[in-house]
Each structure stands twice: as structure tokens, then as C-alpha cells.
Amino acid sequence: MKSKLRDISLAVIGLGYVGLPLAVAFSKKRTVIGYDSNPRRLKDLADGKDLTGEVSDSELVGAEGLRLVSSPEDMGNCNTFIVTVPTPIDEHKRPNLMPLLSASRMLGRYLKPGDLVIYESTVYPGATEEECVPVLEQESGLLFNRDFFVGYSPERINPGDKKHRIANIKKVTSGSTPEIAQRVDELYREIVVAGTHLAPSIRIAEAAKVIENTQRDLNIALINELAIIFNKLGIDTEAVLEAAGTKWNFLPFRPGLVGGHCIGVDPYYLTHKARAIGYQPEIILAGRRLNDSMGRYVAGQMIKTMLKRHILVEGCRVLVMGLSFKENCPDLRNSRVIDIVRELMDYNVQVDVFDPVVSPEDAQQEHAISLIEKPQHGTYEGIIVAVAHSEFARMGGHEIRRLGKENHVLYDLKYVLPADQADLRL
To answer: What is d(CA 47, CA 60) in angstroms, rounded to the nearest whole number?
Structure first.
């Protein structure tokens, strides 16, 4: 590939939480084609609105170098493609590469000699070259590393985080040949002020990405297990963590639900590959099982406490505050709050879900949940603050308490309130 960096004609495939900020960042340096197959998404972006909240309205309007398209033909003149489609898991917690392979099939039909395809989606080590490259070859009729090339630079977007953005998060890069690896690295250095780390191979870059969130998942699982133990001992978990945190090398993890498209998903990609090569992972899967069980644990704690307060559980009303997978973010993907809701419903509890950050349409489509517009005072026998939205923190314990009946239980799952203002904390 002999074209210079300035000769790159760039397209970003997938304009979600990862792709849109990336396309906007590159559009400040060069013309960028932004492709997405969702007409609703493209219309919102054309109207200057990013409903994910990752790009401000002013940033989007100011992205004059970004051209939005819905037809693959409109990318025909591009020679460099960055793929940022999601890589979820299926109902059996197995990797679902269909979005990635579908994007590869689409690109393969338009691939030309000398083109470069860079993947950002989280995968297991080997997936880019073992799964995506054969699809590109088959669809294009071109030969890998002779006619076209690939790179891998895993995304490090943290949805809802206004501090850690593309420009100030160090970027891991890699390529299918040494020359291509340098070109990929140079391309990202256009927009990443924090710098880049050029990995020795695509497989190493893939492995680095998948263990980032696996490590966090296991650390949170440990704290969740400690919280369960401390609850049984009648010890406040947050107070324990604050005390332990005075040691300089204590890691500041907190208990809670582990959802989202990264921490709750990425470990399954690694364990899938481990099993494929004949190794049965133990610790990683144990952490996943514990974290996936926390919704049931929270609901069970709530029910037991209500019974101790002589509250009739069957038919009572419980308010769940927050549905997204994290605070101040509308992302519902793999939110584990739904586990609490379903578990409470199994006790014949009437559950109202209130989330001012989430789109009601998305809640209905993703989880078949009808969000309430505003909870009414004096209505609930139980209240669970499940997500630490800033709006809930501003309400404070007194205002949240007013939503409950005279005899009710308030469970602060995310330490939004001071310890003495809640009946239960994780």
C-alpha cells in the first residue's frame, strides 16, 4: 500500500457510541464518509441530534467534514474503512459475530486493490484474520496482504464519560504487515493527542482489548462477593471499602450490577476462544456467574426486608429508579437492572420503572418496559435507586422518600445517598 497518509479517503461504518465520536474527530482533519444502515439514526444526526449523548449538538453541527450516507455505493471512492459495529453475545452467552461479518460482506463487495479495512469492534484473539479476512477475500475476489490489508485498533469509548474522550485516551493500533501497522498508527495519531501504542500483531491488540474489561469484571465480582459477605455480617460495605482505600495500592472498585456492551460481554469472547483451543476457564466464568446473579440477589434482599417490615409483598408497588446500564447514559444494552425488575415481578410485585435519561421507545423495544413519566408521592412500598443518575442525586433522600408510603423500604444500590438515608445498601 503505497498511498501516503494525506491520500487516505476515509469511511466509518457504524455511527453508534463508538463510530460517531470517531467520525466527528476525524472530520476535523479530513473529509469522512459516515455510513449507518439505520434510517432513524441518520435522520437524527442530519438534524444535528445525537441521542446517545456522546457528541454534543454543537460538535455535530460543526462537523462539516462529515458526510452521512445510507448506501454502501456512496463509499465506493474510499480506500480506508473503519468498522465500528457492535459485537454482542447471543442468548446462550456465545459471541455473535453476525454484525461484524455482515459489515465485512458489505465492504468486500466494494473492496479495491490497495484498500485498508480497520476493525475496532471487540473480538477474541484471531477473529479479525480468521473470521473477517476470509469474508473480505470471498466477496472481493482479492488476496489478503497482496491486494488489500487490514488493521485492528480496539475502541476504548466509555459511554457517558465526558472526561475520557477519543483525543485523551491512548489508542492501541496494529496492522497485517509492518508497513500497514505504521500507517494505521499514523492515521490514529491525527486525532489522539494522548498518543498510540503500536502492538506487535493484530492478535496481540485483540487480546489486549478483551482482557481490559475481563480484568474489571473480575475485580467487580470480588467486591460483589465481599458485599454479600459483609451484608450477612451486618457490616456496611462502603465503610469497609473507604477504610481499605486508605492503603496506597488498594483498587477503588465498588459493588453493583455489571452490564453494558463491554464489561458484561467481553469476557465471554475470551472464554469462547479458550474453550475452542481446549482450555476450560475457571476464574473468568466464576466472576461472570457471580456478576450475572446480582440482580436476583438485590431483589431477594428487597423482598426479605419488606417482609420484615410486615409489608404485604404480593400486589405491592415498587419503584425502580434507573434502567440504563450506567449513570447519565441512555444506553440500555445488556443492562442488568432488568434482572431486578423481572425477579420482583416473579413475586407478583407491581414494578414501575422511572428513567429520565432513557428513551421510552428504546425501553419498550429493548426490554418491553413502559417507563413512567413521573413517580407520584406516597405510592410505593419499595424504592430501588438502581442507577446513579445525577438527577436522582439532586433529588436527595428526603424527596425520594416522599415517593414511598408511610411504611416502605428504600434500597440505595449505587451509594447515591448518605448511608443513614437508605434502609438497604449493597
So the answer is: 9
For residues 423 and 374, is the Cβ–Cβ distance under 8 A?
no
Who contacts 89 (Cβ-Cβ below 8 Å, separation ≥6)? 95, 96, 265, 268, 269
Neighbours of 196 (CB within 10 A): 17
| 385 SS3 class | strand
Q: What pLDDT is stored for residue 61 in this prediction?
A: 86
Distances (CA, A) of 345 to 49, 69, 166, 328, 340: 36, 43, 41, 26, 9
Helices (H) and strands (E) in the chain, counts: 15, 13
Residues carrying an active site annotation = 262
Read off the pLDDT of residues 392-426 as tens digits, 9 standing for 90 and up: 999 999 999 999 999 999 999 999 999 999 999 99
Q: What is the pTM of this model?
A: 0.92
Report the C-alpha gap between 224 and 290 in whole angstroms: 8
The pLDDT of 225-245, averaged and rounded, is 96
Are the CB atoms for 413 and 298 separated by under 8 Å?
yes
- Sequence-distant (6+) residues with CB within 8 A of 250 are 244
